[in-house]
Amino acid sequence: MSDGYASVRHRPAETCKNIRRCHRATVINGLTTMITETLSSPGIESRHSMTRVLLKWGALAALVGAALYLILALYAQREFVFAMLFLVLTASAVAVFVSKKLYAHRYIFPAIAGMGLFVIFPLMYTVGIGFTNYSASNLLSFEHVQENLLSRTYQSEAVRYDYQLYKTEEGYVFWLEGEHQNLTSTPVDLESGERSAPVLPVSGKPQGEPLSIREIIQLRGELSDLTLITEDGRELSQASLRSFAAIHPQFTLHDNGSLTNNQTGVTYFPDQETGFYRDGDGNALSPGWTVNIGWDNYLKVVSDPSIRGPFFEIFVWTLSFAVATVVFTLALGLLLANLLQWDQIRGKGFYRTMLILPYAVPAFISILVFKGLFNQNFGEINLVLEGLFGIRPDWFSDPALARTMILIVNTWLGYPYMMLLCMGLLQAIPRDLYEASAMDGAGPVNNLFNITLPLIIKPLMPLLIASFAFNFNNFVLIALLTGGAPDIIGASTPAGTTDLLVSYTYRIAFQDSGQNFGLAAAIATAIFLVVGALSLINLKLSKIKV
Amino acid sequence: MAMVEPRSTKYRVLASHLGMLAFIAIILFPLLMVISISFRSGNFAAGSLLPENPSLEHWYLALGIPYTGEDGVTTQPPFPVLLWLWNSIKIAVVSAVLILALSTTSAYAFARMRFAGKGFVLKSMLIFQMFPPVLSLVALYALFDQIGNHVSWLGLNTHGAVIVASLGGMALHIWTIKGYFDSIDRSLEEAAIVDGATTWQAFRYILLPLSVPILVVVFILAFIMTIMEYPMASVLLVDTDKLTLAVGAQQYLYEQNYLWGDFAAAAVLSGLPITVIFLYCQKWIVGGLTAGGVKG
C-alpha cells in the first residue's frame, strides 16, 4: 500500500498519463500511508508529531480506561447485556482507531456507534424483553429479589420493652422496661441524625420528667429510624409509640435455594417458570423476578379475549388511519400543487407561504391548539358549529367523531408535505404533453389521470410508503390529541378506540399500573416486522444506488 | 408561452383563486384563533376573532411575570415557559452541533472513500431510520438508567441523555450531506492530496468550505427535529424545571387544570420563532425533508 502512494507522489505530475485515474489510486491507496509518512518524516515535523502521537495515545488510553471501568461496574452488578454492549463498542472503537486498515471507518465510527447504541441495540433489547415477563411485579433479577427478601426484618413480640424518653443536656436518653431487665441508653442526639445507640442494663430510672406522648409524636420520624443495640448484639427498633422490640431477619436461606419465613414458619421455593417464590399451596411472594417465558406474551395477544379484541380493533384502526391519511393528504396536496404550477395563477409566492404554514408551525403546538379548539365545552369549533347548525359534537367521547377529528387534524398537518413533494415532481413533467392533450381537447381531469398521475406515481411511491410508515407510528399526534380516549370497554390493558398500535404499547408499558413491559415489547416486535417489511419494499422501489 | 387555452380559462382561474383563498381561510383559522385567544381575559372566555376587551394577562404569565387583574387578584405564572424554551433551545443547539459534526465526517467517508461494507452500512442506515424510537422506549429507558448509575450527567432526567439519544437519528442527515458531496467534483481534493495534503486536510480545507450551504440546512433541520422531539424527552425527563417545551406544553390542557388562554400565549410565544425560522429557510429545508420523508 505504501508503495502505491509513494510512487505516485514522487513521480512528476505530468508523467502521469491519465491524471484522474492516478489521483483516484492516490486517494484510495494513500489514505492510510499518509499518516505514517507524516509521522516518520524527519526533523521538526517529527517532534511535533511525537507530541501528537503521545496525545492521541493518551486520549485513547484514558477513554479505554473509563470504558473498562464502566464495563466492570456493570459486570459486577450482573448487568451482563449492558456490559457486553459497552465491551463491543469499546473494542470496535479501539480497533477502528488503532488499525491503519480501518482508517476510513474512523470517519463513520461515531455515527455508526450512535445508531448502534440508540437504534439497533434498543431494538434488539426490546425484541428480547418480548419473551420475558418483565413488568412492575417482575422488575428485578433473581439475585436482587433474593437480596431484597433476605434484608427484610420483623419485630418479635417475645422480646419487648416499654420505653420512656428523657431529654438531657447531652441528648435524649431511653429508659426501657422489660419483663426480665431494665435498660438505659447513652444520650442520643436525635435531631442531628444519629441512627443507633447502645443500651445497658441498669437499675435506676434517669433523673427528671419523661417526654409526653405529644413530644414523642413530634420525634416519630427520628425514632422510627433508630436502632438500639443491646449488650449481646440484639437489635431493637420502635414497635409502637410506647414500646421497642427486637428485630429478626424475616427469611432464612437454605442450601436448596428455598426460603423459610422465620415469623410464620412457611417455606417458599423459587419457581423459575413464573419468577416468584411460592409456598406449597402456590401462594407467591412479592416481588417477583424477570424470567424468560417464551412465546407467552404473543399467545396472550392471540388467545386472551380481553387483549385480543382491543388489539385487533386497534390494529384495524391503525391501518385505516395510515391509509386514509396518505390518501387525504396526497389528494389535497396534489390538487394544490397542480393549482400552484398553473401558469395562469398569479401570487404564487403568497399562496405557497400561506399553504405551508401548517407545516412550519411545530407539530406539538398545533396538535395542542386543535385539542383546545375541539374541546366539547369551551372549544371554538363547537361554538361555531352551535352558532351555525345548533350542534355540539362530542369530539372526545364518541369513537367515530374522535377518529374523524384525528383525520381532520392529521390532514391539516400533513398536506403541505405532500404538496411540496408533488410540486417538485410536477416540474419534471414535460410541458408539451399538456400542450398536446389540450390540442386534443382534454380537460384538467383527463390530464390528471392520463398524464400527471402515471408520470409521478413511480417516484412518489417510496415517499408514500415512508409517509404510511410514519403515520402507522404517529405517536405524537395520538398522545397529545386524545391520549387514546375514548377507552375500549372490556379491555384488561389500557386501550382506546383512537389508540394506534404504537401508543397502545406506550400505554401498556408506561401508563398502566401493571407496567407490563414484556407484553408491550411483544407488540412492539410485531410493529418492527411491519416497519421492516415496509422499509425493505421501499428500498427495492426507490432503487437507491450506493 | 404558446399554450393552447380553452375559452373557459378565465373563469377557471377566478374559481381557483377563490377556492384557494377560502381554503387558506379555513387552514389559518386555528392559528389566528390561538393568537386571538392569547389576548382574551380569563381561561374560558368565548368571543369573536377580534377580542372585545384585549388583555395582556396571558402574555405576562407566559413571560414569567405575575399578573395582577383589575379585581386585585394576583396570578402566578402556572409553568416556567421561558425555562422550557431555553431547555429546548439548549438541547437542540448542542445536539444539532454534534449531529452536524458527526454526520459530516461520516458523509465524507461514504462519499469519497472505498471501504469494506460501505453499501451494506448505507442501506441498513436507510432501513433502521424508519424504526421509530418510541417503540424501543422501554429499552432506551433501561439503557439510560444503567448509564446513569455510573455517569450521572447522562442518566435519566438529564439533558445529556436527551442530547445523546438524538444522535441515533443521524442516518437521514448523513444521506443528505453525502448527496451534496457526491455532486462536488473531487478533482480539487485530489489535486490537494497530490500536493501533499492529508485526507483530513483535503476534507477540512477544500470540501468543507464548498459545502457550507448544505451544512447550514442540516444544522437547521437537526435543530428543528430535536426541538419537536416528544416521545423520548417525555420518558427521559421528569422534573418540571428540566422539561423541554414539547413535553411541558401539554400540561396546560389537563382536564382538571384547563388553562386555555395561558396556553395560547405560551404557544404563540414559543411557536412563532420556530415557525419564522422554518419559513425563512423553507427553500433549503424542503429539499432535505423530501429526501427522507420524516414528517407528516
UniProtKB/TrEMBL annotation, chain B:
Q: Which GO terms describe its biological process?
A: maltodextrin transmembrane transport
Q: What Gene Ontology terms describe what this protein does at the molecular function level?
A: ABC-type maltose transporter activity
Q: What Gene3D superfamilies is this protein classified in?
A: MetI-like
Determine if Disulfide bond is one of this entry's keywords: no
GO CC, sorted alphabetically, is:
plasma membrane
Predominant location category: membrane
Where does this one sit in the cell? Answer: Cell inner membrane; Cell membrane
State the Pfam families in the record: BPD_transp_1
Keywords, comma-separated and alphabetical: Cell inner membrane, Cell membrane, Membrane, Sugar transport, Transmembrane, Transmembrane helix, Transport
**Residue span, ABC transmembrane type-1 domain:** 85-281
* SUPFAM superfamilies noted in UniProt: MetI-like
> What membrane topology does the annotation report for this chain?
Multi-pass membrane protein
Show the stretches that span the lipid bilayer: 20-39, 89-111, 120-144, 156-177, 205-228, 263-281
Write out the function statement from the record.
Part of the ABC transporter complex MalEFGK involved in maltose/maltodextrin import. Probably responsible for the translocation of the substrate across the membrane.
Q: Which family does it belong to?
A: Belongs to the binding-protein-dependent transport system permease family. MalFG subfamily.
| Record protein name field | Maltose/maltodextrin transport system permease protein MalG
What species does this protein belong to?
A: Marinobacter maroccanus
